[in-house]
């Protein structure tokens, strides 16, 4: 359960989320005429009460993003290695074909 779900399930507040610059952020709408300073302070207090959970949640999300980046880097490295191997195979095949053609040209007609 994420912090967002935890706070929303509590029924006191309703938060939403978005991404800003690739980072997940929580959104709190405080522009309604009925919103008071007490409401804003309560949201802030709830966020503070869930500090440990918040830190764990963000750490897990950061670890997940890093694992995804590592997987993407590994895939790119594998693709580059496969491309190099394919290019080397083509070069080697061309060199073998060239060497065979030179030998055939050098052999006396028989």
From TrEMBL:
<feature type="compositionally biased region" description="Basic and acidic residues">
    <location>
        <begin position="69"/>
        <end position="87"/>
    </location>
</feature>
<dbReference type="InterPro" id="IPR015422">
    <property type="entry name" value="PyrdxlP-dep_Trfase_small"/>
</dbReference>
<feature type="region of interest" description="Disordered">
    <location>
        <begin position="69"/>
        <end position="110"/>
    </location>
</feature>
<feature type="compositionally biased region" description="Basic and acidic residues">
    <location>
        <begin position="100"/>
        <end position="110"/>
    </location>
</feature>
<protein>
    <submittedName>
        <fullName>Uncharacterized protein</fullName>
    </submittedName>
</protein>
């Amino acid at each position: 359960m994420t912090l967002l779900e935890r706070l929303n399930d509590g029924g006191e507040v309703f938060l939403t989320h978005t991404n800003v610059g690739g980072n997940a952020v929580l959104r709190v709408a405080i522009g309604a005429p009925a919103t008071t300073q007490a409401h804003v302070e309560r949201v802030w207090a709830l966020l503070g009460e869930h500090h440990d959970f918040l830190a764990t949640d963000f750490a897990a999300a950061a670890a997940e993003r890093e694992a995804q980046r590592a997987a993407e880097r590994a895939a790119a490295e594998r693709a580059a290695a496969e491309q190099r191997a394919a290019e080397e195979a083509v070069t080697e095949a061309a060199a073998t074909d060239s060497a065979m053609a030179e030998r055939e040209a050098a052999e006396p007609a028989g």
